Amino acid sequence: MKVLLVFAHPEPRSLNGALRDVAVAELQRLGHEVQVSDLYAMGWKPAIDRADFPNLASDERLLPTEASKAAFGAGELTQDVRDEIDKLLWADVVILQFPLWWFSMPAILKGWVERVFACGFAYGVGEHSDKRWGNRYGEGVLAGKRAMLIVTTGGWEQHYGPRGINGPIDDLLFPIHHGILFYPGCEVLPPYVLYQAGRLDSVGFETAAERLRARMRTLAETPPIPYRRQNGGDYLIPAMELRPELGEPGAEGFAVHLSQEVGSSA
Ligand SMILES: Cc1cc2nc3c(=O)[nH]c(=O)nc-3n(C[C@H](O)[C@H](O)[C@H](O)COP(=O)(O)O)c2cc1C
To answer: For the chain, where are the E strands, in sequence order?
Structure first.
């Protein structure tokens, strides 16, 4: 398989750097091709601005969605963005690796998504009718690919449990899993989460590394999180609400978008 690992940590000697090396070594040992986008090392430009659209007249109002769609359609996205799009199209599996910072991904990685997941490429595609509402949530340009997060946290596992003060990890990661990866079509595997990352001794690291190697060995067969497909009949169109007869009575929130209950973190 071809694996793209997008890495968002400023320090190669960090725990995240060590885990990345473990993942890449295991994937290569298994004969997979690996490309790493090391965002800090690449000096990745994280913010969308006018410089992303050099063909926009200097006095023209910047409308980010429209500018992105026009530049994508005309093949005029900047070279750094086009290179990342090529890597995404090349990959069978996309891994995003990052330390949890303020309950989400570091800004540089969010900026990678914002710039690379261009309009006309990752969103704003497909027919809108009374049967379909675009190619998204299970359909889209990344359909057929698998995606997975590798995340480290400072907080303990219980802090991210069903009643934990930080909120359940599956809920915190839902916008990334469902809103960023499932949206353009990826099948999303349960995340690899390493809790209490600041407290790891060498035995703890080896245990964590072995758990990560096991996840790399099972990338092809791990069942994805069973998100419901938007155009699969479970949602009212155009309201985009789950049909009232589906889901547990009274259920609401993120969990209703799963077609069955699962424990998703490993
Ligand atoms: C800016 C910043 C924000 C952080 N926010 C969180 C957070 O929201 N939740 C958490 O559990 N840990 C948080 N942490 C701790 C990091 O997740 C933790 O230090 C990291 O996962 C350890 O991996 P590393 O050694 O590779 O950096 C934060 C750390 C920084 C620097």
So the answer is: 2-7, 33-38, 93-99, 146-152, 187-188, 192-194, 235-236, 241-242
The β-bridge partners of 97 are 7, 150
What's the pLDDT tens digit per position in 118-177?
Answer: 999 999 999 988 889 999 999 999 999 999 999 999 999 999 999 999 999 999 999 999
Q: Which domain holds residue 78?
A: 2-224
What CATH number has the domain bearing residue 213? 3.40.50.360
- Give this prediction's pTM: 0.96
Shortest-distance atom of ligand 1 to CA 159:
11
Testing ligand 1's pocket by substitution, the residue of 11, 40, 100, 201 carrying the most ligand atoms inside 8 A of its CB is 100
Q: Which residue puts its alpha carbon closest to atom 6 of ligand 1?
A: 101
